[in-house]
Every structure is written in structure tokens, then in C-alpha cells.
Design a protein that fits this description.
With 692 residues, the chain is mainly beta. The chain has one domain (2-691): TonB-dependent receptor, beta-barrel domain (Maltoporin, Chain A, Beta Barrel). The protein contains twelve helices and 38 strands. The strands form six sheets. It has a 22-stranded antiparallel barrel. A five-stranded mixed β-sheet has the order 3-8-9-6-7. The two termini are 13 Å apart.
Amino acid sequence: MQQSRRRESRKNIRKIPFWIPIFTGITGWCFLLLILVNTSFAQDATDDTLKAGPPPVKMEEVVVEGTMIQDAVRNLPKNVSVITEIDIQQSTGEKVSDMLSRQADVSIRSYSGQDKQATVDIRGMGATSGSNVIIVVDGIKMNGPDLTGSDFSSISLNQLEKIEIIRGAGSVVYGDGAVGGVINMITKKGAPSPTLELHSRVGSYQTTDTSVIYYGGFDELDFNLYTTHYKTDGYRDNGFFRKSEAGVKLGYEFFNRITLFLTTALHVDEYGLPGPVSKQVFEDINLRTSTTRPEDTGQTVDQRLIGGIKFQLSDQSHISVSRGYRFRDIDFLLGYSPLLSKSEQTGFIKEVSKSLSLTYNLKYGPTGNGHIFKSGLDHAYSYYIRSSKTQLKRQNSLVEDFGAFVMNQWSLLKNLKMDLGYRQNSYQGKYRHDLYGTLGGKKAWINGSQLTRNWQNSAYDLGFTYSLNSNVNLFSSLASSFRSPNVDELALAEDSLSPQSGQHLEFGAHYRADSGTNMDIALFQTRISDEIYFGENPSTGESVNRNYDDMTRRTGVEFEIKWFPLEELYSWFNVAYINAIFENRNTRIPLTSAFEVNAGMEYMINDQLSLSATGTAVGDRIDGNDENNDTYDKLKPYQLIDSKLTYAWQEGRRVYFGINNILDTYYSTIAYSETYYPMPTRNYYAGVDWTF
């Protein structure tokens, strides 16, 4: 259905309007479009035949749910990107991280090329992006209380209906850690009639990927059931990864006023941990796939559950209550020694997290020019244990987070909206570090002393959106953010370690045209005081988690355009430039790139055959252990090109073949002290999707 709608849209689309080079010239980015849009487009746009052609098709407005006050992208005072189900189907990407990495100012750092142990960075947060970018799936935060970040491998790409990328501060809505941005993922809901989807794919490195999705509805009930199994030997020795998943999503409506919902998922995996390689090995094609850690492994059991109820009090107001649970167990073996049994060397992580959310939503004011009010209370609780017998220590923690927020959107004038929000947050953490030693003549865990931390944080968000005309909306925002130290950071920290706070300024423009052209530009600056990092204490020489003495500043610009230059061709392009520095030293923040460029196209060769291609260029980055920018070599810039050919002979039925990294580029997204994690070179895949 959705793929056919995009095809229908293409049939009546005019070519790119003549004013686009003029508009981008005003914003200072004319040269970017001039690279892509040649003179013939401008000539075609004034052709008499084009003017006499069929009327343009108005593209559907995409409503963003992750901002709490739901609205179309064009009405938001933020730079937001939405990846739809159509985009996912047509993309050359195979994984969630692939889809995210092609968005403006969104970077992926990976240790293996898999979604496992991949971290998303938005707006140059660097090595701690896993704690500074919030990932949400169906209302559950995927960020762990430790430094592991979010496990994207527990999210099935075929199961996603929409991905929302909300750049910049999101602490008013999401609280602790929403600094660089928020990624909100929504899985598929039921359909009017039962539908069965089968997806199967094979690829290089002995990769197989199979999933089954069954969704539909009966009267007031809608449902979605899915299961998936994935396995690969990986690009490197001991780079294997196996996972199995299953999930259920249910919704039931009573009397058109009360809606019950329930989502549950189970993810099980096992994987190898090949570790880094030296610079010499990294640059040798015959050695770069090798590992010095053939026995290091890990395995995960991750269970998620969220349920709730929505009361429609009136046509203008409703209350929602939800309760979420996450149970995560990880076993890992790092630094294997043949002198000990594997059971004696295996550590574990155990997490039990709970969340409770209550929100109230009200629309009020004059019809057609009304206001929106929203308020909420949320509570999060995490119990966490990390044990390592080889290091003879165990880490225990209990973290509670309570927040209250209010938001309001006023329609001040017919073409002017103001958004204002505020959050007050309370954080309490209890930590204990135990040692493995001898007690009463026996080996046992000896409890350490308890450390307690209590912090109060607040955040605000003020934004304006002005409709210049029916196509162009201007926006600006001023916001703050905060992040408390996580349990791994507190495990090895200075006594003075405290939360960080940020100030965010942003302004830009959204353009939406009936012709199918969408364009967004944003300029921003983020200044963070007391930013948390792992580094050397100048006075003691010990490496611990501490707050930077120096203020950090990230100034940048993001530009994105999507358009139909031809009836059969859909194209997109985005670029981000960011200057991420320590203010006093004027040195670059490690593991951040000054620029990233992405481009792609989908070409309908005929009604059944289509070709997709994407290209990515990433600039150099500072080594993760080189704050002064003068100790280690930089990570080299790299370019990637991927392509996919799809044959769809019937709606919902298609076969495809793709090539990743066509240029066979050698690259790494991470380096510490000139040790690297090689990414896959050229590889292939093929698959079939079948809908009944």
C-alpha cells in the first residue's frame, strides 16, 4: 500500500522548482545545491510543456509523536527528520544503524559493523554519545543505566513503522540524557484485515536473516505478532553474531473512549568480541580481519514490556497512563586466559528497570486557532549489578529518577506559534563496590561501603514557529539539558563528579511544497558546562571519570533536501558541518567529524524494477584518547557507496539484490591510542519479501 502511494505520487510530480537555488543562496548554502542541481533543471522548470502537465500531488504531512505535543514536522521549532516505512522498504540499509547513519548530523560508531555495540551520535557528542542521545522504542527507553548505550540489535528493522529523529535538547520531555537528541521508534500496529509478511535475506559472511510478521484487527482489537532470526559469521575472526526475537503488540478500544495497549518483546543473542587491532594490522588487508581475542564472547537476554490505558475524557482532552519493564541479563568473557576455566572468567550484568508515566493532554481556545497544553509525571527505577571475578570486583547500584513537566503551545497569531516547556527532575543513586576475597577461610564477595548521590535538575524549552507563507515556516528555539553520571562512570570517578548542564540555541526553516520538494535547514550552538568524560586527572595522573574544567561548544549547520527532479526519480541530499571544540584550548573534541555528507536516489526503471543508491562521506576525527589533538594520528576520512536493485511484480511481493561498500573502502569509526576496529569491506546480499 505505502510503496504504491509513493509510485502514484511520482507520476504527477513536477520537476524541481526554479526558486530552490535562490532560496538556498539566501541561507548561505547555494553551492551545495549547485553541485547537485544543474542548469538543465532550471530550464526544465520553465518549460511550457511542464506548466501544462497534470497538477502536482500534495505529499502527506508527517506527524511527529516524539515531541509529546504531536504536530507536523513543518510546525515544530526543531530540526526533525522522519524515516517512514516506505523509506525503510526502499533503502539500501539492512540494519537500524544503516537507516540512522544516512540522516543529517547523525553518526554511527561501531565496533563490528553490526547493530550490536553500535552507538548513535547526534550533533557531535563524541565518545559519550551513548549517554547523551536517548533511544525510545514504543515508549520504553533503550538506554541502559551503564555505558553500554542502546542495543540496536534488539530492534527489528522490518518491524518498524516509523523512526523520528529529534535533534537538540529534549530534556523537558525525556529528562536525563536528552542532550544531543532523541530517536523515537514506533513499531507497526494492526491493520484493517489480517496480513502476513515473510522476509528472508542471505548475504556475505554466511549471513541469513528471516522474519515473520502477522498483524491485523478484529472489531475493536488490533494486533501485531512477529518473530525473527539472524545469524552471521561476521567480517572478522570471532566476529560472529546470532540473535532471535519475538514480540506482540496489542490494542483494544472500549466505547470509543478507552484504549488499552500492550507491547512485549524478547531478544536473545550471542556474539564474539574480536577487539581492536594495531594501526599496522588495520592497514594490512591480509591481517585486518584477524583477532588476538578468539575466545572473548558475550550473550544477552533482553525482555521488554509496556502496557497502559488511554482515557478520552472529551473530544479535546485525554489522560494516558503507562507502565514499562525491562529485564536485561548479559554474560561476557573478556581477556580469556587458558589458566582458568571459562566459568571462572565469565562476568555478568543484570538490569531490572521499571518506568511509570502519567500524561494529560488538552486542546483549548478558539476553533481553528487553538492552543495545546500537556503535563506529565514520570518515574524510572533501575537495579543494576555488574560482576567480574577476573577483576575481583562487583558493582551494585539502585537508581531512581522522578520528573514532572508542563508544556504549552500557543497560537499567538494565525501564523505564529510559541512552545514553552519546563521540567523539574529529582535523581537518587545508591552505589556499592564489592571485592572478591577471602572471608572466613572461603572465597566470597565482601560488601563495600555504600555511596549515595542526590541531585536536582531542571530544564526548559522555548520555541517559536512563524509561517512565512503556505510553504515556508521559520523557527527558533532556546533550551537547556542535563545529564547525570551513569553507574559505570560513578564506579571509577572523582568524588566531585556531578551532572552536566547544557544550553542550546537553534534557528532555521522548514519548506514543504505541493510539488513534493521538502527542505530543512538549521543552525545551532550547544554549550555544555561540567561535561562528563573519562580522562586523566592532571593533579594525580589517574584516569577516572570527571567533569571537564573547560566548557565545550558545538556550533554547526544542518541542511537536508528531498525532491523529485524527474517523474521516475526521487532524490535526497543532506550535509552537516559541526565545529566541536573545547572553548579555552580551541582543540577538537575526540571522535567527532567536522563534516558529513549523504546523498541518495530511488529510480523507477519501470513499474516493477527500481534502483536505489546511497553515498556517504565522513571527515577525519580525532583519536578517542587525544584531547589535545597532538598525540595520535587522526582517523582518516572515508567514503561509502551502497546500491540495491529491486523487482516488485505485485504489491507487497518483491526480490532484491544489493552491494554494500562498493568502493571497498578500508575504514574504522573508532580508535583509541591508534588501535582500530575494522569495518566490513565490499559485501553482498539478496532477499525476498512476500505479503499475503
